[in-house]
Amino acid sequence: MGLSRRRIKASHLSVSLHSQRMPTMGAPEKDPREEVVQAWYMDDSDEDQRLPHHREPKEFVSLDKLTELGVLSCKLDADNYETDEELKKIREDRGYCYMDFCEVCPEKLPNYEEKIKNFFEEHLHTDEEIRYCVAGSGYFDVRDHNDKWIRVWLKKGGMIVLPAGIYHRFTLDANNYIKAMRLFVGDPVWTPFNRPHDHLPARKEYIKAFVEKEVGDHAVNSAA
Ligand SMILES: [Fe+2]
């Protein structure tokens, strides 16, 4: 599938998700997604990967900045996902016909230790990675335009869409449990391509769509 079609759909999702912002009396607009999706720049320490790894002082990242990286997010009703019309619409609009659940804990995930290790290896996919957290929580780390790690904390009710070609990794947080709905366009392909895999068309398309564009915009802005 061509990237242009994906990008049109991505912007459509973005627009519909921005409508989740609700004005409050006398206060700045509150985006409900921030209750279930938070992001920040990571420190460089080698401590336990399940710790938050905030910088000192903390450097939070806006959901708009994530959108610039191609990472989309929304808040949904995780207690009623079976009948949720909003989820149904997202699946229809974006062609997410495949759905299953992945529970990450020693009792439910075969080869738990090995999987946990693999999830945290920096990798990319040739398709979107869509995860909807219906219980627990976890960290999805993504690279920004300057190759810095941004930690995205996904909690119950949060959905994120990582674009094809973005380098990322996953870890549980200190609560050690997540149950995530996995969505996919067509038959699922979960293959991770560990870094470096810069020659893949999906990576090249990602760079063109989200990295070079950003660099170009900055050049225009600074020249203005
Ligand atoms: Fe992945």
UniProtKB/TrEMBL annotation:
Location of region: Disordered: 1-31
Recorded GO CC terms: cytoplasm; nucleus; plasma membrane
SUPFAM superfamilies associated with the record: RmlC-like cupins
The record's free-text note on cofactor binding: Binds either 1 Fe or Ni cation per monomer. Iron-binding promotes an acireductone dioxygenase reaction producing 2-keto-4-methylthiobutyrate, while nickel-binding promotes an acireductone dioxygenase reaction producing 3-(methylsulfanyl)propanoate.
Entry's Gene Ontology molecular function annotations: acireductone dioxygenase (Ni2+-requiring) activity; acireductone dioxygenase [iron(II)-requiring] activity; iron ion binding; nickel cation binding
Basic residues: bias regions: 1-10
Protein name: Acireductone dioxygenase
Lineage, highest ranks first: Eukaryota, Viridiplantae, Streptophyta, Embryophyta, Tracheophyta
